[in-house]
Amino acid sequence: AQDAQIDSQFDKDKLATVFSSSDGDLDVVDKIISSLCLEGSPVSPTHFHNSVHNAPSGYWSIANKLHTPSTSLSAFDNSFTVGLLEAASQILSTENDVLFVSYDMPPPPLLKPFRQVDHAFSTALHLTDATRTGLVATISIEIVENNNEISKMQDSNLEILRLANPAARALPLLECLANNSSTDIYLPYLSDGALKLSVSAC
User: Fold this and answer.
1) What residues are paired with 196 via a beta bridge?
2) Going along 24-149, which residue ranges are E strands?
3) Contact between residue 47 and residue 28 where contact means Cβ atoms under 8 Å apart
4) pLDDT value at position 66?
């Protein structure tokens, strides 16, 4: 999130945030579940406080003295695309800039049989209205039927990472931005649709 704001100009009073994660902090969840199995169920108040899905966004807002709206969401393996759509919707409806953060971590050993996330990954994008100056690219978003092939990574290691972490579904978009390319990208969106991103380099 800090890297996304380097060299970017923003008004702290108009910077909303959207945080997306498929699972949140499973290490904290694991500690709470383990505590419940002990005599007296000694759940740590700090762990309980940090188990809520919006804890990371709350700490981010406190650290940066932000008083603007923040949304935290989860949509299982589609958390990145749903979060991106939410961020875009907020820009159109409020005309505020949005810092979009998506992340997921591998679960602790006891939870691995229930949730397969093999590698850690996070990304952040500072999104704003397309009429602003100094943009890297503009992105047009459309929900389409899932009859288009989902965009993949040509590099085999990056493709493994894309499939191994829900937040890493962002990789085709990040590659496009890094290469200053203009193209259409299709990201998975729920069970019967895809998110078509028409990216135009500036």
Assistant:
1) 142, 186
2) 70-73, 97-104, 121-127, 137-145
3) yes
4) 86
**Residue holding tokens 């108040």?**
45
Which pLDDT belongs to residue 11?
A: 75
Residue 76 is which amino acid? F
The residue type found at 58 is G
Pairing status of strand 70-73 against strand 137-145: unpaired
pLDDT of residue 179: 95
pTM score of the predicted model: 0.91
CA dist 168 and 150 (Å) reads 13
What's the pLDDT at 167?
97
Query: How would DSSP label each residue in 148-161?
Result: SPPP--SSHHHHHH
Q: Which residues of the chain have pLDDT under 70?
A: 7-9
Tokens of 70: 């923040």
- The CA–CA distances, whole Å, from 90 to 16, 63, 198 equal 8, 23, 19
Reading the block at residue 3, the tokens are: 């890297």
Torsion of CA 177, 178, 183, 189, to 10 degrees: -60
Which residues are registered as beta bridge partners of 17? Answer: 70, 99
For residue 16, give the nearest of 93, 98, 85 by alpha carbon.
98
The strand ranges marked E within 3-131 are 15-20, 70-73, 97-104, 121-127
Residue 99, token pair as written in the block: 């810092």
